[in-house]
Amino acid sequence: MISEFRNHPLTDFSKTENREKQQAAIEEVKGQLDTVYPLYIGGQDVETGDLFKSVNPCQKDQVIGTFHKAGQEQAEQAIQAALQTFETWRFVPAAERADYLFKAAAVMRRRQFELNAWMILETGKNWVEADADTAEAIDFLEFYGREMLRYSAEQPVTPVPGERNEMFYIPLGVGACIPPWNFPLAILAGMTSAAIVAGNAVVLKPSSDSPTIGYKLVEIMKEVGLPAGVLNYIPGSGAAIGDYIVTHPKIRFISFTGSKEVGLRINELTAKPQSGQIWIKRVVAEMGGKNAIVVDSETDVDQAVEGVAAAAFGFQGQKCSACSRAIVDASIYDEFLEKLIARSKKITVGLVEDQSTFMGAVINETAQETTLKYIDIGKQEGRLVLGGESGPDSGYYVQPTIIADIDSKARLAQEEVFAPVLAVIKARDFDHALEIASDTEFGLTGAVYSRNREKLDKAKEIFHVGNLYLNRKCTGALVGAHPFGGFNMSGTDSKAGGRDYLLLFMQAKSVSEKV
Ligand code: NAD
């Protein structure tokens, strides 16, 4: 009997024992840097000789891993391997498929400190953020395994005299999983395991900024004996092989999480049927956000400051859920801003392998350049009150940055920056704040700090986001508790970690027999 799902607890780093284990894991992983990793297709390691490197954004001369890069030839091989495997995998009983996920979760629990260490080094996550990422990956495996058991049970249909009726779920086929680098284990493992447990075979193209962590999932799935060809791993440039994969006539669905630009491109390209294609492709596309925290006049300002600082600068503002707009009631605006600046000045920036560091570098040089350009725009559109600089130069660092007095229509209030840059906007009153909050093309997360019940209820009705938080920060969604996905240009509202999610990777078949 499988127990009820519960979230995996976060590691308590105040305990010496845990700190020592994390430190030891970082040292151990450092001893494994610059391994050369192959592709993994149909259960075989494949080498192309065309190599690329993944580096530590906090220490750019440190190579984390070297990867053989897939081209179209390998993408085709991966799709063919998945197609072949799908013919057997789809008939494997759901409970058996779910068991691979439960076993993989057990391996992750055993390797948690090591997986944390890879994320600390490859993506610049601090200890707590990396640990939460691993915990979320474990949660996805445990949750989707259970969800598959639920969906494979008898589904209710209305009885009709003289007929035996049933409805059951079958998989879609071969899918492409295209995750981002910012939740390099959780999102990658979540989207991949959901598709697999539903009976599909997948081609996984990890982000070139976090391919090592993607390979760790391959290692784990090999260890638990997932049949060859169910998971095919092909790191490579999205620009070079992305179109080939997503437009391939045999690809049945695409599970994408990333930027609006790439998501919309995939949606557009896949809408056109290709020669030999006999279905409408299903696209799950979870994209960006311009998330706001509304700070009402009737609130505990200190609590709101804590929430905004954590949501704006946690993992360098590189969460899709990050707060990039603080919309503050005019009557407390000056007090809030002053306290926020004071709080944010305490943020430490540097090498995240040191436990005391809160913020590392942004993911790569392009991200750093784009952020600095947005800061220049912000300086013209508002008042720079904190940060604004890059450095230290050993990594792609950007200091926590606050730009006040931003107009709600300004670029800094409308465009996703995906960095530690917060726009602060003054609102006349609560209604005005809510109006500003929903006035972007996005609709991912949002939060409201207020003591007033009526105002909270109003926000619940009209703040148009997929994930709304009341009197807490807008980041940190928990699998099962806070199904995650956004409205409008934030995506298809797939609600990862929710009870509708697996349906995206299945189709229902109704069978009626005359008796
Ligand atoms: P990205 O769009 O640059 O890349 C995402 C993935 O798409 C990567 O694996 C990349 O290699 C691949 N890719 C790039 N070009 C492609 C193409 N032409 N065809 C197919 N694949 C292609 O995004 P990113 O920088 O990795 O991630 C950051 C973005 O992701 C932000 O916008 C963030 O808000 C968003 N995000 C959203 C959610 C969510 O749940 N809504 C979660 C995490 C991140």
How would you describe what is shown here?
The protein is an alpha/beta fold and 515 residues long. The chain is 39% helix and 20% strand. The chain has 15 helices and 19 strands. It has helices spanning 16-30, 72-89, 94-110, 112-123, 127-152, 186-197, 211-223, 238-247, 260-271, 301-313, 333-344, 365-381, 411-414, 430-437, 453-462, and strands at 35-37, 39-41, 44-46, 51-56, 59-68, 163-171, 174-178, 201-204, 231-233, 251-257, 282-286, 291-295, 323-329, 383-386, 401-404, 421-427, 445-449, 467-470, 506-514. Strands 14-15-16-13-12-17-18 form a 7-stranded mixed β-sheet, sandwiched between helices. It has a 5-stranded parallel β-sheet with strand order 9-8-7-10-11, with helices on both faces. A 3-stranded mixed β-sheet has the order 1-5-4, with helices on one face. Strand 15, helix 13 (411-414) and strand 16 (421-427) form a beta-alpha-beta unit. Helix 2 (72-89) crosses helix 8 and helix 5 packs parallel to helix 6 (186-197). The two termini are 34 Å apart. The mean pLDDT is 98. It binds nicotinamide-adenine-dinucleotide.
The class by helix and strand makeup works out as alpha/beta
Number of helices: 15
Residue ranges: pLDDT <50 for 5 or more in a row?
none
How many strand elements? Answer: 19
Distance between the termini: 34 Å
| Rounded mean pLDDT score | 98
The small-molecule ligands in this entry are: nicotinamide-adenine-dinucleotide
How much of the sequence lies in strands comes to: 15-25%
Helix content: 25-40%
| Oligomeric nature of the chains | single chain
What are its keywords?
515 residues, single chain, binds nicotinamide-adenine-dinucleotide, globular, 19 strands
